[in-house]
Amino acid sequence: MANVTDFNFAGKKALVRVDFNVPLNEKGQITDDTRIRGALPTLKKILADGGSLILMSHMGKPKGKVKPELSLGQIVDAVSAALGVKVQFAPDCAKAGDAAEALKPGEALLLENLRFYPEEEGKPVGIDKADPAYDEAKKEMKAKQKEFAKTLASYADVYVNDAFGTAHRKHASTAVVADFFAPENKMVGLLMEKELAAVDNVLNNIKRPFTAIMGGSKVSTKIGIIENLMEKVDNLILCGGMTYTFMKALGGKIGVSICEDDKLQLALDIIEKAKAKGVNLLLSEDSVCADSFSNDANSQICPSNAIPDGWEGLDIGPKTQEKFANAIKSAKTILWNGPAGVFEFDNFAVGSKAIADAVVEATKNGAFSLVGGGDSVACVNKFGYADQVSYVSTGGGALLEAIEGKVLPGVAAIKG
User: Fold this and answer.
1) pLDDT of 108-139, one tens digit each?
2) What interhelical angle do 34-49 and 190-204 show, nearest 10?
3) Known catalytic residue: 397?
């Protein structure tokens, strides 16, 4: 597989799939430019070689419709400033041939939001899956998706996918477009390389003990990851809202805490599987409970399996903080996905910070720590720890699918 480091982009037009799906405020200003900064090493290498850039990305979920509030035109100035080159803008990503053709070495062009076209995602619009005509509509859309990808590919000599955050999507710009480039002219970018190396480090280059921390509100969304990790980890910490599904499954009282009543047997199965695999499964012993879902709610510490009626668990308690921290500090490999509680509320962020503190301490002592998934990343950023862990992933769903052991379409398309 070709790679950006060894490739000479001199005189080449490079079509680069980036993930510039950055958060904007009501004025259309970027509130977090992490994703733009993450792509810079790849983009600057291409320009330094004497190549030209055609940047493509999505923003939000316009579902095949033009929505001005999701236009990438809003970020052109910010991308120009970050790149150190005035970036041109193509207001229609499917009609950018002339603009791409006119690009000179060292110049850059940003295409409008790919998802303004339903062909990008390749899903039929305005027809229900239950409709008898759905299968035919899906077939037609797949053909249109291929044509859309062919149009995008026609703009450039080389294709680079540096958007790990969308690598789990089989979209026109992430997977299909690669079919129109020879093997030596398609590659993953430097950010994608780092992401894949970090996942590989956690899953295939394990230094023990290996502790994984899985937070989140639902067991159902994490079951694939939990089952895959059960084959690899020494300690598995399950926290966040899913705690209370486990507590109820074990016969505990959880007040009005979040719970998946249809997943109680699944929770018991996970406990049994951990025993059978010799995995040390750690659940919350005590919780910081609130009488309403608010930062200013009245709070008390309760056993996680004995929460009074009308109260809900919003964070882990002090006993659990200590138990979790001990398992993390002794680890040599750490994966963290999902906070311990409602960390957005400062009064219920103590448990998540205790986990973050322990991850940072373990990292200082030589552990490899991978933090990924939107809320975990927001956590380490909130506490100012992003530069004190081994790697912070830019991918949410892509990271989770990679950890599950799934093949990512955006990577498979490059490898062929």
Assistant:
1) 999 999 999 999 999 998 888 888 999 999 99
2) 120
3) yes
